[in-house]
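Final report, closing paragraph on structural work. Over the funding period we assembled a curated collection of sequence-structure pairs, and we close with a single example.
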Amino acid sequence: MSHNRVVKHVRRYAREVVGFSFFDYFANAVQADEQTRRTAVANSELAKVITYADPTGERASRNVDREATG
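Its predicted structure, as stored:
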């Protein structure tokens, strides 16, 4: 999957999604099957990234994006 496609999903999640973890949203968005989801969660590096919440960093990223777009 391309970097741009991932960024598109991250931005859409930040803007529109409420009530789902990013992993659940992303897995549904790319239509991952159960085996792929289990494999992703079993990968310790990936699991660390998708379960770590950083509200301050996320807010800062949104502020920078907002300033960049105008």
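The two ends are 28 Å apart (CA to CA). The chain has one domain: 3-69. We thank the funder for supporting this effort.
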